[in-house]
Amino acid sequence: MRIIEKVKEMQVWSDAARRAGRRIAFVPTMGTLHDGHLALVRAAKKLGERVVVSIFVNPAQFAPDEDFAAYPRDFARDRALLENENVDALFYPSAAEVYPDGCQTHIDVERLAPLLEGEFRPGHFRGVATVVAKLFNMVRPHTAVFGEKDYQQLQVIRRMTKDLNFDIEIVGHPTVRDADGLALSSRNAYLSARERQAAPSLFRALKRAEALVAQGERCAGRVAAAARAEIEGEPLAEIEYLRICDPETLAEIPRIEHAALLALAVRVGPARLIDNAMLKT
Amino acid sequence: MRIIEKVKEMQVWSDAARRAGRRIAFVPTMGTLHDGHLALVRAAKKLGERVVVSIFVNPAQFAPDEDFAAYPRDFARDRALLENENVDALFYPSAAEVYPDGCQTHIDVERLAPLLEGEFRPGHFRGVATVVAKLFNMVRPHTAVFGEKDYQQLQVIRRMTKDLNFDIEIVGHPTVRDADGLALSSRNAYLSARERQAAPSLFRALKRAEALVAQGERCAGRVAAAARAEIEGEPLAEIEYLRICDPETLAEIPRIEHAALLALAVRVGPARLIDNAMLKT
User: Fold this and answer.
1) Which residues lie closer than 8 Å to A191 by C-beta, 6 or more apart?
2) Residue of B nearest to A16 (CA)
3) Cβ–Cβ of B106/A107 closer than 8 Å?
Protein backbone atom coordinates (compact mmCIF):
# COMPACT_ATOMS: atom_id res chain seq x y z
CA MET A 1 0.00 0.00 0.00
CA ARG A 2 1.39 3.33 -1.05
CA ILE A 3 1.19 6.05 1.62
CA ILE A 4 0.83 9.47 0.02
CA GLU A 5 1.08 12.69 2.03
CA LYS A 6 1.39 15.31 -0.73
CA VAL A 7 -1.34 16.56 -3.07
CA LYS A 8 0.95 16.65 -6.11
CA GLU A 9 2.08 13.07 -5.53
CA MET A 10 -1.54 11.96 -5.20
CA GLN A 11 -2.44 13.66 -8.50
CA VAL A 12 0.52 12.12 -10.31
CA TRP A 13 -0.34 8.64 -8.94
CA SER A 14 -3.95 9.05 -10.01
CA ASP A 15 -3.06 10.39 -13.44
CA ALA A 16 -0.81 7.39 -14.08
CA ALA A 17 -3.57 4.96 -13.02
CA ARG A 18 -6.09 6.74 -15.26
CA ARG A 19 -3.76 6.73 -18.23
CA ALA A 20 -3.25 3.02 -17.71
CA GLY A 21 -7.02 2.66 -18.01
CA ARG A 22 -7.58 1.79 -14.34
CA ARG A 23 -10.84 2.73 -12.67
CA ILE A 24 -10.19 4.48 -9.35
CA ALA A 25 -12.61 4.02 -6.44
CA PHE A 26 -12.24 6.38 -3.51
CA VAL A 27 -13.29 6.20 0.14
CA PRO A 28 -12.78 9.49 2.03
CA THR A 29 -12.63 9.05 5.82
CA MET A 30 -11.63 10.88 8.99
CA GLY A 31 -9.79 7.77 10.21
CA THR A 32 -10.32 5.78 13.41
CA LEU A 33 -11.68 3.15 11.10
CA HIS A 34 -14.38 0.72 12.13
CA ASP A 35 -16.23 -2.05 10.31
CA GLY A 36 -18.48 0.56 8.67
CA HIS A 37 -15.46 2.08 6.94
CA LEU A 38 -14.12 -1.34 6.01
CA ALA A 39 -17.46 -2.18 4.40
CA LEU A 40 -17.05 0.97 2.25
CA VAL A 41 -13.53 -0.15 1.31
CA ARG A 42 -14.79 -3.60 0.30
CA ALA A 43 -17.56 -2.00 -1.78
CA ALA A 44 -14.91 0.23 -3.41
CA LYS A 45 -12.83 -2.81 -4.33
CA LYS A 46 -15.79 -4.08 -6.36
CA LEU A 47 -16.23 -0.68 -8.07
CA GLY A 48 -12.66 -0.01 -9.20
CA GLU A 49 -9.36 -1.71 -9.98
CA ARG A 50 -7.56 0.81 -7.78
CA VAL A 51 -8.79 1.79 -4.33
CA VAL A 52 -7.70 4.99 -2.61
CA VAL A 53 -8.67 5.70 1.01
CA SER A 54 -8.05 9.14 2.49
CA ILE A 55 -7.66 9.88 6.18
CA PHE A 56 -8.11 13.54 6.99
CA VAL A 57 -9.82 15.04 10.02
CA ASN A 58 -11.12 18.17 8.32
CA PRO A 59 -10.97 21.19 10.64
CA ALA A 60 -13.29 23.18 8.32
CA GLN A 61 -16.30 20.99 9.11
CA PHE A 62 -16.06 21.41 12.89
CA ALA A 63 -17.40 24.49 14.65
CA PRO A 64 -15.13 26.08 17.29
CA ASP A 65 -17.20 24.49 20.10
CA GLU A 66 -17.17 21.02 18.53
CA ASP A 67 -14.93 18.00 19.02
CA PHE A 68 -12.16 18.60 16.44
CA ALA A 69 -9.33 18.37 18.97
CA ALA A 70 -10.90 15.43 20.82
CA TYR A 71 -11.85 13.52 17.66
CA PRO A 72 -10.19 10.08 17.99
CA ARG A 73 -7.09 9.46 15.85
CA ASP A 74 -5.07 6.25 15.48
CA PHE A 75 -3.03 6.25 12.29
CA ALA A 76 -0.96 3.12 12.99
CA ARG A 77 -4.08 1.03 13.56
CA ASP A 78 -5.89 2.55 10.53
CA ARG A 79 -2.90 1.87 8.33
CA ALA A 80 -2.71 -1.78 9.39
CA LEU A 81 -6.44 -2.23 8.78
CA LEU A 82 -6.15 -0.78 5.27
CA GLU A 83 -3.03 -2.84 4.47
CA ASN A 84 -5.09 -5.85 5.43
CA GLU A 85 -7.81 -4.84 2.95
CA ASN A 86 -5.23 -4.54 0.15
CA VAL A 87 -5.95 -0.88 -0.41
CA ASP A 88 -3.72 0.53 -3.18
CA ALA A 89 -3.10 4.00 -1.81
CA LEU A 90 -3.66 5.65 1.55
CA PHE A 91 -3.82 9.42 1.17
CA TYR A 92 -2.90 11.07 4.45
CA PRO A 93 -2.30 14.80 3.95
CA SER A 94 -1.60 17.29 6.73
CA ALA A 95 -3.93 20.22 7.43
CA ALA A 96 -1.27 22.59 6.02
CA GLU A 97 -1.15 20.53 2.82
CA VAL A 98 -4.94 20.70 2.40
CA TYR A 99 -5.37 24.32 3.55
CA PRO A 100 -2.18 26.26 2.79
CA ASP A 101 -1.99 29.94 3.74
CA GLY A 102 -4.24 32.19 1.71
CA CYS A 103 -7.00 29.60 1.16
CA GLN A 104 -10.28 31.50 0.86
CA THR A 105 -12.56 29.51 -1.44
CA HIS A 106 -15.59 27.60 -0.23
CA ILE A 107 -18.51 25.73 -1.69
CA ASP A 108 -22.12 26.03 -0.56
CA VAL A 109 -25.02 23.74 -1.43
CA GLU A 110 -27.71 26.32 -0.88
CA ARG A 111 -30.93 24.52 -0.08
CA LEU A 112 -29.82 21.14 1.30
CA ALA A 113 -27.07 22.37 3.61
CA PRO A 114 -29.05 24.56 6.06
CA LEU A 115 -31.55 21.78 6.93
CA LEU A 116 -31.32 19.08 9.68
CA GLU A 117 -27.62 18.85 10.62
CA GLY A 118 -27.03 22.29 9.12
CA GLU A 119 -29.52 23.81 11.53
CA PHE A 120 -27.53 22.52 14.52
CA ARG A 121 -24.09 22.63 12.92
CA PRO A 122 -24.03 25.84 10.85
CA GLY A 123 -21.14 25.84 8.38
CA HIS A 124 -20.69 22.06 8.69
CA PHE A 125 -21.71 21.22 5.12
CA ARG A 126 -19.76 24.14 3.70
CA GLY A 127 -16.73 22.46 5.24
CA VAL A 128 -17.78 19.05 3.96
CA ALA A 129 -18.61 20.15 0.39
CA THR A 130 -15.40 22.15 0.10
CA VAL A 131 -13.08 19.41 1.37
CA VAL A 132 -14.77 16.73 -0.71
CA ALA A 133 -14.41 18.83 -3.89
CA LYS A 134 -10.76 19.37 -2.98
CA LEU A 135 -10.23 15.65 -2.34
CA PHE A 136 -11.95 14.85 -5.65
CA ASN A 137 -9.43 17.08 -7.44
CA MET A 138 -6.55 15.54 -5.51
CA VAL A 139 -7.56 11.89 -5.97
CA ARG A 140 -9.44 12.20 -9.30
CA PRO A 141 -11.54 9.06 -8.73
CA HIS A 142 -14.06 7.56 -11.14
CA THR A 143 -16.30 6.64 -8.22
CA ALA A 144 -16.52 7.47 -4.52
CA VAL A 145 -18.27 5.59 -1.73
CA PHE A 146 -20.00 7.24 1.26
CA GLY A 147 -21.96 5.70 4.13
CA GLU A 148 -25.72 6.18 4.32
CA LYS A 149 -25.46 6.78 8.07
CA ASP A 150 -24.56 10.33 7.10
CA TYR A 151 -27.52 10.51 4.75
CA GLN A 152 -27.65 14.29 4.45
CA GLN A 153 -23.90 14.40 3.81
CA LEU A 154 -24.40 11.86 1.03
CA GLN A 155 -27.15 14.01 -0.51
CA VAL A 156 -25.07 17.19 -0.20
CA ILE A 157 -22.14 15.45 -1.91
CA ARG A 158 -24.36 14.00 -4.65
CA ARG A 159 -25.74 17.47 -5.29
CA MET A 160 -22.34 19.19 -5.26
CA THR A 161 -20.87 16.53 -7.56
CA LYS A 162 -23.72 16.94 -10.05
CA ASP A 163 -23.92 20.74 -9.83
CA LEU A 164 -20.19 21.22 -10.33
CA ASN A 165 -20.11 18.55 -13.07
CA PHE A 166 -17.54 16.29 -11.44
CA ASP A 167 -17.45 13.20 -13.64
CA ILE A 168 -17.61 10.95 -10.57
CA GLU A 169 -20.17 8.32 -9.65
CA ILE A 170 -21.30 8.72 -6.02
CA VAL A 171 -22.26 5.44 -4.34
CA GLY A 172 -24.10 5.23 -1.03
CA HIS A 173 -23.46 2.22 1.21
CA PRO A 174 -25.97 0.90 3.79
CA THR A 175 -25.23 1.71 7.42
CA VAL A 176 -23.28 -0.95 9.28
CA ARG A 177 -24.61 -1.66 12.79
CA ASP A 178 -23.63 -3.45 15.96
CA ALA A 179 -25.69 -6.50 17.00
CA ASP A 180 -28.05 -4.29 19.04
CA GLY A 181 -28.60 -1.93 16.11
CA LEU A 182 -26.32 0.97 17.08
CA ALA A 183 -24.87 2.47 13.89
CA LEU A 184 -21.07 2.21 13.87
CA SER A 185 -19.42 5.59 14.36
CA SER A 186 -16.02 6.78 15.51
CA ARG A 187 -17.91 8.91 18.02
CA ASN A 188 -19.29 5.80 19.77
CA ALA A 189 -15.87 5.73 21.46
CA TYR A 190 -17.06 8.70 23.56
CA LEU A 191 -19.77 6.54 25.25
CA SER A 192 -19.43 5.15 28.78
CA ALA A 193 -20.70 1.60 29.37
CA ARG A 194 -24.01 2.96 30.67
CA GLU A 195 -24.35 5.40 27.76
CA ARG A 196 -23.55 2.62 25.32
CA GLN A 197 -26.58 0.76 26.72
CA ALA A 198 -28.76 3.83 26.12
CA ALA A 199 -27.56 4.37 22.53
CA PRO A 200 -29.59 1.64 20.78
CA SER A 201 -32.73 3.66 21.57
CA LEU A 202 -32.01 5.48 18.29
CA PHE A 203 -32.27 2.24 16.36
CA ARG A 204 -35.40 1.20 18.25
CA ALA A 205 -36.97 4.52 17.26
CA LEU A 206 -36.21 3.86 13.60
CA LYS A 207 -37.64 0.33 13.86
CA ARG A 208 -40.77 1.58 15.60
CA ALA A 209 -41.35 4.09 12.78
CA GLU A 210 -40.78 1.45 10.11
CA ALA A 211 -43.26 -0.86 11.81
CA LEU A 212 -45.94 1.83 11.99
CA VAL A 213 -45.53 2.69 8.31
CA ALA A 214 -45.64 -1.02 7.45
CA GLN A 215 -48.94 -1.18 9.37
CA GLY A 216 -50.35 1.58 7.14
CA GLU A 217 -49.75 4.73 9.18
CA ARG A 218 -49.19 7.65 6.78
CA CYS A 219 -49.29 10.64 9.12
CA ALA A 220 -45.71 11.82 9.60
CA GLY A 221 -46.60 13.49 12.92
CA ARG A 222 -47.87 10.25 14.46
CA VAL A 223 -44.90 8.24 13.18
CA ALA A 224 -42.47 10.85 14.48
CA ALA A 225 -44.20 10.95 17.88
CA ALA A 226 -43.93 7.18 18.27
CA ALA A 227 -40.25 7.23 17.32
CA ARG A 228 -39.63 10.14 19.67
CA ALA A 229 -41.29 8.25 22.54
CA GLU A 230 -38.82 5.35 22.12
CA ILE A 231 -35.90 7.70 22.70
CA GLU A 232 -37.57 9.75 25.41
CA GLY A 233 -38.00 6.52 27.38
CA GLU A 234 -34.23 6.49 27.76
CA PRO A 235 -33.15 9.05 30.39
CA LEU A 236 -29.56 9.36 29.11
CA ALA A 237 -30.68 10.24 25.58
CA GLU A 238 -31.64 13.77 24.59
CA ILE A 239 -33.14 14.40 21.16
CA GLU A 240 -31.70 17.28 19.14
CA TYR A 241 -33.98 16.71 16.17
CA LEU A 242 -36.18 13.94 14.80
CA ARG A 243 -37.77 14.69 11.46
CA ILE A 244 -39.60 12.99 8.63
CA CYS A 245 -38.47 14.45 5.32
CA ASP A 246 -38.57 14.16 1.57
CA PRO A 247 -35.58 11.93 0.71
CA GLU A 248 -34.44 14.26 -2.10
CA THR A 249 -35.03 17.80 -0.81
CA LEU A 250 -34.88 16.90 2.93
CA ALA A 251 -37.84 19.25 3.49
CA GLU A 252 -40.22 18.08 6.25
CA ILE A 253 -43.36 16.41 4.95
CA PRO A 254 -46.73 15.97 6.70
CA ARG A 255 -47.63 12.65 5.05
CA ILE A 256 -45.65 9.60 3.98
CA GLU A 257 -46.93 9.01 0.46
CA HIS A 258 -44.06 7.05 -1.06
CA ALA A 259 -40.66 6.95 0.61
CA ALA A 260 -39.72 9.28 3.44
CA LEU A 261 -36.53 9.76 5.40
CA LEU A 262 -36.63 9.62 9.18
CA ALA A 263 -33.52 11.47 10.33
CA LEU A 264 -32.48 12.06 13.91
CA ALA A 265 -29.69 13.45 16.05
CA VAL A 266 -29.51 12.53 19.71
CA ARG A 267 -27.08 13.44 22.45
CA VAL A 268 -26.06 10.54 24.68
CA GLY A 269 -23.62 11.81 27.29
CA PRO A 270 -20.70 13.47 25.49
CA ALA A 271 -21.58 11.90 22.13
CA ARG A 272 -23.80 13.42 19.49
CA LEU A 273 -25.16 10.47 17.50
CA ILE A 274 -27.02 10.60 14.21
CA ASP A 275 -28.97 7.91 12.40
CA ASN A 276 -31.71 7.56 9.81
CA ALA A 277 -34.00 5.14 8.06
CA MET A 278 -35.84 5.20 4.78
CA LEU A 279 -39.52 4.65 5.51
CA LYS A 280 -41.14 2.87 2.60
CA THR A 281 -44.90 2.54 2.15
CA MET B 1 -13.53 21.45 -35.61
CA ARG B 2 -15.82 19.39 -33.43
CA ILE B 3 -18.87 21.27 -32.11
CA ILE B 4 -19.94 19.86 -28.74
CA GLU B 5 -23.19 20.89 -27.06
CA LYS B 6 -23.49 18.25 -24.30
CA VAL B 7 -21.48 18.02 -21.08
CA LYS B 8 -21.14 14.25 -21.26
CA GLU B 9 -19.85 14.37 -24.84
CA MET B 10 -17.31 17.03 -23.82
CA GLN B 11 -16.08 14.86 -20.93
CA VAL B 12 -15.77 11.79 -23.16
CA TRP B 13 -13.87 13.78 -25.80
CA SER B 14 -11.53 15.17 -23.17
CA ASP B 15 -10.98 11.81 -21.51
CA ALA B 16 -10.00 10.26 -24.84
CA ALA B 17 -7.54 13.09 -25.55
CA ARG B 18 -6.02 12.74 -22.08
CA ARG B 19 -5.66 8.99 -22.38
CA ALA B 20 -3.93 9.50 -25.69
CA GLY B 21 -1.45 11.68 -23.80
CA ARG B 22 -2.59 14.96 -25.38
CA ARG B 23 -2.28 18.17 -23.41
CA ILE B 24 -5.55 20.13 -23.51
CA ALA B 25 -5.51 23.94 -23.51
CA PHE B 26 -8.79 25.71 -22.84
CA VAL B 27 -10.11 29.19 -23.60
CA PRO B 28 -13.47 29.94 -21.97
CA THR B 29 -15.34 32.83 -23.63
CA MET B 30 -18.78 34.41 -23.80
CA GLY B 31 -18.54 34.57 -27.61
CA THR B 32 -18.75 37.60 -29.91
CA LEU B 33 -15.09 36.98 -30.43
CA HIS B 34 -12.61 39.75 -31.17
CA ASP B 35 -8.86 39.81 -31.69
CA GLY B 36 -8.36 39.66 -27.92
CA HIS B 37 -10.04 36.25 -27.81
CA LEU B 38 -8.13 35.10 -30.89
CA ALA B 39 -4.87 36.06 -29.19
CA LEU B 40 -5.87 33.77 -26.29
CA VAL B 41 -6.62 30.98 -28.75
CA ARG B 42 -3.21 31.39 -30.40
CA ALA B 43 -1.55 31.32 -26.98
CA ALA B 44 -3.51 28.16 -26.16
CA LYS B 45 -2.26 26.51 -29.32
CA LYS B 46 1.28 26.93 -28.02
CA LEU B 47 0.34 25.49 -24.62
CA GLY B 48 -1.46 22.31 -25.68
CA GLU B 49 -1.79 19.83 -28.53
CA ARG B 50 -5.58 20.10 -28.29
CA VAL B 51 -7.39 23.44 -27.99
CA VAL B 52 -10.94 23.70 -26.68
CA VAL B 53 -12.83 27.01 -26.79
CA SER B 54 -16.13 27.37 -24.97
CA ILE B 55 -18.84 29.88 -25.82
CA PHE B 56 -21.32 30.36 -23.01
CA VAL B 57 -22.97 33.59 -21.92
CA ASN B 58 -23.26 32.74 -18.24
CA PRO B 59 -26.52 34.08 -16.74
CA ALA B 60 -25.18 33.52 -13.20
CA GLN B 61 -22.58 36.26 -13.48
CA PHE B 62 -25.04 38.98 -14.54
CA ALA B 63 -27.19 40.81 -12.00
CA PRO B 64 -30.90 41.23 -12.89
CA ASP B 65 -30.30 44.88 -13.92
CA GLU B 66 -27.28 44.07 -16.08
CA ASP B 67 -26.90 43.38 -19.80
CA PHE B 68 -27.39 39.58 -20.00
CA ALA B 69 -30.22 39.79 -22.56
CA ALA B 70 -28.53 42.54 -24.57
CA TYR B 71 -25.07 40.92 -24.49
CA PRO B 72 -24.02 40.55 -28.15
CA ARG B 73 -24.19 37.02 -29.63
CA ASP B 74 -23.08 35.83 -33.08
CA PHE B 75 -22.47 32.10 -33.15
CA ALA B 76 -22.06 31.72 -36.92
CA ARG B 77 -19.32 34.35 -37.01
CA ASP B 78 -17.61 32.97 -33.86
CA ARG B 79 -17.64 29.48 -35.29
CA ALA B 80 -16.05 30.61 -38.56
CA LEU B 81 -13.34 32.52 -36.68
CA LEU B 82 -12.50 29.47 -34.56
CA GLU B 83 -12.51 27.12 -37.59
CA ASN B 84 -10.01 29.50 -39.11
CA GLU B 85 -7.76 29.19 -36.03
CA ASN B 86 -7.86 25.37 -36.29
CA VAL B 87 -9.44 24.98 -32.89
CA ASP B 88 -10.06 21.29 -32.11
CA ALA B 89 -13.33 21.54 -30.22
CA LEU B 90 -15.88 24.30 -29.74
CA PHE B 91 -17.93 23.67 -26.61
CA TYR B 92 -21.27 25.43 -26.93
CA PRO B 93 -23.67 24.25 -24.22
CA SER B 94 -27.15 25.66 -23.60
CA ALA B 95 -28.07 27.31 -20.29
CA ALA B 96 -30.26 24.29 -19.45
CA GLU B 97 -27.29 21.98 -20.06
CA VAL B 98 -25.06 24.00 -17.74
CA TYR B 99 -27.70 24.74 -15.08
CA PRO B 100 -30.27 21.94 -15.07
CA ASP B 101 -33.21 22.12 -12.67
CA GLY B 102 -32.26 21.70 -9.03
CA CYS B 103 -28.81 23.31 -9.34
CA GLN B 104 -27.99 24.92 -6.00
CA THR B 105 -24.22 24.81 -5.53
CA HIS B 106 -22.00 27.86 -5.74
CA ILE B 107 -18.41 28.78 -5.10
CA ASP B 108 -17.20 31.87 -3.28
CA VAL B 109 -13.69 33.29 -3.17
CA GLU B 110 -14.10 35.09 0.11
CA ARG B 111 -11.62 37.93 0.22
CA LEU B 112 -10.89 38.70 -3.45
CA ALA B 113 -14.46 38.62 -4.77
CA PRO B 114 -16.05 41.50 -2.79
CA LEU B 115 -13.41 44.06 -3.86
CA LEU B 116 -13.37 46.34 -6.96
CA GLU B 117 -15.78 44.78 -9.47
CA GLY B 118 -17.44 42.85 -6.64
CA GLU B 119 -18.33 46.08 -4.90
CA PHE B 120 -20.26 47.29 -7.97
CA ARG B 121 -21.36 43.88 -9.22
CA PRO B 122 -22.27 41.87 -6.10
CA GLY B 123 -22.52 38.16 -6.88
CA HIS B 124 -20.58 38.57 -10.12
CA PHE B 125 -17.53 36.57 -9.04
CA ARG B 126 -19.66 33.90 -7.40
CA GLY B 127 -21.15 33.37 -10.87
CA VAL B 128 -17.73 33.45 -12.50
CA ALA B 129 -16.00 31.10 -10.03
CA THR B 130 -18.88 28.62 -10.14
CA VAL B 131 -19.15 28.47 -13.93
CA VAL B 132 -15.39 28.23 -14.40
CA ALA B 133 -15.18 25.32 -11.93
CA LYS B 134 -18.04 23.66 -13.81
CA LEU B 135 -16.35 24.27 -17.18
CA PHE B 136 -13.09 22.89 -15.77
CA ASN B 137 -14.90 19.67 -14.83
CA MET B 138 -16.59 19.52 -18.23
CA VAL B 139 -13.49 20.22 -20.33
CA ARG B 140 -10.82 18.79 -17.99
CA PRO B 141 -8.02 20.91 -19.45
CA HIS B 142 -4.35 20.81 -18.45
CA THR B 143 -4.13 24.56 -18.88
CA ALA B 144 -6.55 27.46 -19.34
CA VAL B 145 -5.92 30.93 -20.74
CA PHE B 146 -7.62 34.13 -19.52
CA GLY B 147 -7.14 37.75 -20.58
CA GLU B 148 -5.45 40.20 -18.23
CA LYS B 149 -8.02 42.87 -19.14
CA ASP B 150 -10.22 41.13 -16.56
CA TYR B 151 -7.40 41.16 -14.04
CA GLN B 152 -9.52 40.57 -10.95
CA GLN B 153 -11.33 37.71 -12.69
CA LEU B 154 -7.95 36.17 -13.47
CA GLN B 155 -6.91 36.48 -9.81
CA VAL B 156 -10.22 35.04 -8.59
CA ILE B 157 -9.82 32.08 -10.96
CA ARG B 158 -6.19 31.53 -9.99
CA ARG B 159 -7.24 31.49 -6.33
CA MET B 160 -10.23 29.18 -6.88
CA THR B 161 -8.13 26.81 -8.97
CA LYS B 162 -5.44 26.62 -6.30
CA ASP B 163 -7.82 26.48 -3.32
CA LEU B 164 -9.93 23.68 -4.83
CA ASN B 165 -6.81 21.83 -6.04
CA PHE B 166 -7.71 21.75 -9.71
CA ASP B 167 -4.62 20.33 -11.42
CA ILE B 168 -4.82 23.07 -14.08
CA GLU B 169 -2.24 25.71 -15.01
CA ILE B 170 -3.85 29.17 -15.29
CA VAL B 171 -2.19 31.43 -17.84
CA GLY B 172 -2.84 35.18 -18.07
CA HIS B 173 -2.52 36.84 -21.48
CA PRO B 174 -1.73 40.56 -21.98
CA THR B 175 -4.64 42.80 -22.95
CA VAL B 176 -5.07 43.33 -26.67
CA ARG B 177 -5.80 46.94 -27.65
CA ASP B 178 -6.98 48.97 -30.61
CA ALA B 179 -4.50 51.41 -32.16
CA ASP B 180 -5.70 54.20 -29.86
CA GLY B 181 -5.24 52.03 -26.77
CA LEU B 182 -8.86 51.01 -26.09
CA ALA B 183 -8.86 47.47 -24.68
CA LEU B 184 -10.79 45.08 -26.94
CA SER B 185 -14.09 44.04 -25.38
CA SER B 186 -17.35 42.66 -26.70
CA ARG B 187 -19.01 45.53 -24.85
CA ASN B 188 -17.26 48.10 -27.09
CA ALA B 189 -20.07 47.25 -29.54
CA TYR B 190 -22.40 49.26 -27.30
CA LEU B 191 -20.49 52.51 -28.03
CA SER B 192 -21.73 55.18 -30.46
CA ALA B 193 -19.12 56.84 -32.70
CA ARG B 194 -18.83 59.78 -30.27
CA GLU B 195 -18.60 57.46 -27.24
CA ARG B 196 -15.95 55.41 -29.03
CA GLN B 197 -13.88 58.60 -29.27
CA ALA B 198 -14.27 59.15 -25.53
CA ALA B 199 -13.31 55.59 -24.57
CA PRO B 200 -9.52 55.84 -25.00
CA SER B 201 -9.46 58.19 -22.00
CA LEU B 202 -9.19 54.98 -19.91
CA PHE B 203 -5.95 54.05 -21.64
CA ARG B 204 -4.60 57.59 -21.35
CA ALA B 205 -5.27 57.44 -17.61
CA LEU B 206 -3.25 54.21 -17.33
CA LYS B 207 -0.40 55.71 -19.36
CA ARG B 208 -0.39 58.88 -17.24
CA ALA B 209 -0.10 56.77 -14.08
CA GLU B 210 2.70 54.67 -15.56
CA ALA B 211 4.59 57.81 -16.55
CA LEU B 212 4.29 59.32 -13.07
CA VAL B 213 5.55 56.14 -11.42
CA ALA B 214 8.40 55.96 -13.93
CA GLN B 215 9.29 59.54 -12.88
CA GLY B 216 9.57 58.37 -9.27
CA GLU B 217 6.14 59.20 -7.82
CA ARG B 218 5.32 56.67 -5.09
CA CYS B 219 2.22 58.19 -3.49
CA ALA B 220 -0.77 56.17 -4.70
CA GLY B 221 -3.16 59.07 -4.02
CA ARG B 222 -1.26 61.45 -6.32
CA VAL B 223 -0.93 58.85 -9.07
CA ALA B 224 -4.65 58.00 -8.82
CA ALA B 225 -5.61 61.70 -8.90
CA ALA B 226 -3.63 62.28 -12.10
CA ALA B 227 -5.18 59.21 -13.75
CA ARG B 228 -8.62 60.30 -12.63
CA ALA B 229 -8.09 63.77 -14.12
CA GLU B 230 -7.43 62.22 -17.55
CA ILE B 231 -10.83 60.57 -17.53
CA GLU B 232 -12.65 63.46 -15.91
CA GLY B 233 -11.50 65.64 -18.83
CA GLU B 234 -13.79 63.54 -21.03
CA PRO B 235 -17.45 64.60 -20.51
CA LEU B 236 -18.93 61.31 -21.78
CA ALA B 237 -16.90 59.19 -19.36
CA GLU B 238 -18.03 58.62 -15.78
CA ILE B 239 -15.70 56.86 -13.35
CA GLU B 240 -17.20 54.07 -11.25
CA TYR B 241 -13.95 53.28 -9.47
CA LEU B 242 -10.26 53.94 -9.97
CA ARG B 243 -7.98 52.28 -7.42
CA ILE B 244 -4.37 51.44 -6.81
CA CYS B 245 -4.10 48.01 -5.21
CA ASP B 246 -1.80 45.23 -4.16
CA PRO B 247 -1.60 42.95 -7.22
CA GLU B 248 -2.15 39.80 -5.11
CA THR B 249 -4.75 40.75 -2.49
CA LEU B 250 -6.32 43.63 -4.49
CA ALA B 251 -6.44 45.65 -1.26
CA GLU B 252 -5.90 49.41 -1.76
CA ILE B 253 -2.39 50.57 -0.92
CA PRO B 254 -1.21 54.08 0.01
CA ARG B 255 2.27 53.77 -1.51
CA ILE B 256 3.66 52.06 -4.60
CA GLU B 257 6.67 50.23 -3.20
CA HIS B 258 7.14 47.47 -5.77
CA ALA B 259 4.41 46.64 -8.25
CA ALA B 260 0.85 47.95 -7.91
CA LEU B 261 -2.28 47.40 -9.92
CA LEU B 262 -4.21 50.41 -11.21
CA ALA B 263 -7.73 49.13 -11.86
CA LEU B 264 -10.64 51.15 -13.13
CA ALA B 265 -14.23 50.88 -14.29
CA VAL B 266 -15.77 53.68 -16.31
CA ARG B 267 -19.19 54.17 -17.83
CA VAL B 268 -19.17 55.57 -21.35
CA GLY B 269 -22.75 55.88 -22.56
CA PRO B 270 -24.44 52.48 -22.25
CA ALA B 271 -21.11 50.64 -21.89
CA ARG B 272 -19.36 49.84 -18.64
CA LEU B 273 -15.68 49.49 -19.53
CA ILE B 274 -12.90 48.13 -17.33
CA ASP B 275 -9.18 48.27 -17.76
CA ASN B 276 -6.01 48.03 -15.69
CA ALA B 277 -2.26 48.41 -15.74
CA MET B 278 0.54 47.06 -13.60
CA LEU B 279 2.52 49.98 -12.26
CA LYS B 280 6.14 48.97 -11.79
CA THR B 281 8.70 50.97 -9.84
Assistant:
1) A199, A268, A269, A270, A271
2) B19
3) yes
Look up the CATH number of the domain holding residue B225: 3.30.1300.10
Q: How far is CA B155 from the centre of its chain?
A: 10
Stated pTM of the model: 0.97
Question: Based on the domain organization, do B10 and B140 belong to the same domain?
Answer: yes
Domain membership of residue B200 (yes or no) is yes
Q: What is the ipTM of this complex?
A: 0.96
Q: Domain limits at A149?
A: 2-173
Question: B15 and B147: one domain?
Answer: yes
Tell me the pLDDT band of A227, cut-offs 50, 70 and 90. Answer: very high
A188-213: pLDDT as tens digits? 999 999 999 999 999 999 999 999 99
- Cβ-based contacts under 8 A for chains A and B: 81
**pLDDT at position A95:** 97
pLDDT tens-digit readout, B151-193: 999 999 999 999 999 999 999 999 999 999 999 999 999 999 9
B220 and B127 in a single domain? The answer is: no
Q: Is B143 on the interface with A (CB under 8 A)?
A: no
Beta strands in chain A (DSSP E): 2-4, 24-29, 50-55, 89-91, 105-109, 143-147, 169-173, 237-245, 259-268, 271-280
B103, B156: one domain? yes
